[in-house]
Request: fold
Amino acid sequence: MSDSLLLVAMVVVPAVGAAVVAGLPKHRTATARQLALGVSLVVLVLAVLATVAFDPGGDRFQLTSSVPWIPGFGVDFALGVDGIALVMLLLVGVLVPVVVLASWEDTAPPNRSMRTFFAWLLLLEACMVGVFAATDVFLFYVFFEAMLVPMYFIVGSFGGPRRQYAAVKFFLYSLVGGLVMLAAVIGLYVVSEAAGEGTFAFESLRQLDIDPGVQRLLFLGFFVAFAIKAPLVPLHTWLPDAGAEAPVGGAVLLVGVLDKVGTFGFLRYCLPLFPEASREFAPLVLVLAVAGVLYAALLAMGQTDMKRLISYTSIAHFGFIALGVFAFTTEAGTGAVLYMVNHGIATGLLFLVVGMLIARGGSRLVGDYGGVASRAPKLAGVFLVAGLASLALPGTNSFVSEFLVLIGSFPTRPVFTVLATVGIILAALYVLLLYQRTMHGPPRGVLFPADAAADAAADDAAGGAADGAAPHGATAAPAGAGHGATAAPAGGGHGAHGATATLTAPAPARSGGASRMYDLTRRETLVVAPLVALVLVLGVYPQPLIRLIEPAVAATMSDVGAGSAPSEGTD
Reply:
């Protein structure tokens, strides 16, 4: 295959795969998941081939291909990658097969089909590849908006109890941002037409000399859309709902990849196309970034829902990425792009482990778990690795990227950098507290022995009968009960204060009725092993990715008039 067709194949293969999977009979779930896994692995192979064919010291955009699409308006179906886009394609290539395998034994809600789920997943992959590989601004916009459709149906059809609310909120926020960006895209075309040639080609638009006042307006149009997608505070409120209600596989791709389109857009479009406006608005963006780091970290510490907690930690991490982008140094920018990749790996792993925990216990609440490590030590070990990577412990992948962001930002933005480091302390608190409460201590919540729970309920009922005051309608829920069943007292034992939690999914019954917690299965081990390996390998040897990223970031900083040396506007 010609190198110029690699990116085209990465878009076409999953799109065709989605159509084939969607056309299967409804009962062919096994065939659907096998096809989905096979197609996603083909995309991974194509991403690796693209990386091998890419020359970090060569042209800025490589593996390019362009076909006229709407010639009257200068729109081409143009694809190409620099180092920034290439590492994001590698992230997509790694995460989608992992998500397919993680969803292998999932069951669809009533009147839904897992065949449809896998079809939406492959269509989403095609859109994600397209949005990172597009070198035509209008084509980028089309993929940017098209991503909303499969993710809307993944969340709204296969998510948690409040899935419709979360899906609509996600869609409306993103749609509003997209409409604002559409106005800016049209404005950019008008400016290019006034300059002599109406075009949407990125390289041509990058060379335009745009009036500073017009730059400000166009920058804001793009920035609002990307700030919603990233998201930055205060445009973040859709993410905790969507992340909590999405199925685990959907949450991995939502937080691990889709949200990165926002920070990718800052680097690819805001800085090179509107350099003066970028420098002018940088202090405001940095205020939002640091506010997000601190605000989201504090909110994460107060969450009782594990999936919402992880969603808030992601908002804090996006603040670090935005800090690296708008510090205007090559070191910080390289760290920001590396952070985008490493966050997708670490947070994806954390979501997967939490999903495995929820599948066993049937509850998303932190208080419904305790002492899991005593029953599932391998699961607890992977949870610890994912948590340590999330808080950027030295030796894990996230540490390198966070260190590059901070060391690159300090020379130009010392105040913002120092404030952001407080988020590191808060990250250690919310991650370690989550791990300690769920994995250690005496068994409680869903691990509270069912026999003991039944005895406790019988004793309570007997005591109530002796007093002549049995609770009205009080019944003991059987182990493994479905929706609406209550978990055992969180404290475990007779001394608990009647604390219960409604289960969000049926919990599988265990033999003997003792515990619903079991360790990683062979399939689950296969799911988490690649991500654990990447966390550790990239923690000690990130140079292959840095070698790809750094030249593209240096070119971007050159466009904005910055680089390794401190730039104007330092705080």
Summary: Confidence is low (pLDDT under 50) at residues 450-515, 565-569.
